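Predict the 3D structure for this chain.
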Amino acid sequence: MPRTFLLLLYFLTSALLLLGGCDSSQVSDAPVNETQPNDSALPDDSNNPAPLPPETSNPPPPDEQACQPTASEQLMLDLVNAARAQTRDCGGQTYSATSALKWNCNLLAAADKHSRDMATNNFFNHTGSDGLSVSNRVTTTGYQWRAVGENIAAGQPAEEVVMQDWIGSPGHCKNIMNPTYEDFGSAVIFTDQADFSSYWTQVFAAAR
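Done. Predicted structure below.
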């Protein structure tokens, strides 16, 4: 094949990839899950082990009315619990059907903070623009955790699409199916001011 034709094909392909930037989507290379010392239920895959939550009195419970999930949030919770209701293979590791997660407004706050941070500051990473991890974000809400995990994704247009991407990724699937987790919160921010059109965060946790 002539060299001139190959060069032309290369430049045309590069141009198409650039034009498609905001319509692409991805999930993070690896989800995050962290546990307190002496809790062996989950592997500690964090590069920066989380500090222990402060020993403080429990904050007042969130307002019950404000804590009700929106239709979009309820759909995400339903999709997660539907996935957990079936035996599932996550990258060669089999997870039995397990209990449903409960919606938690502290975890919603942590998820919303991170999705909003990624969209506002145009980055895609489990570490926030302030250098903090999911465990720090959850601790800040007052939730006293013994295990915590996070899935993130960007660019997907709807809950069903992003859940399909997460379930298809072994590490993210393991977070969704992990029987240690009891509580759940998730958030999405849509934007036209960043590299991706949407930034999704799921937060999973079990209380101490």
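The chain has six helices and eight strands.
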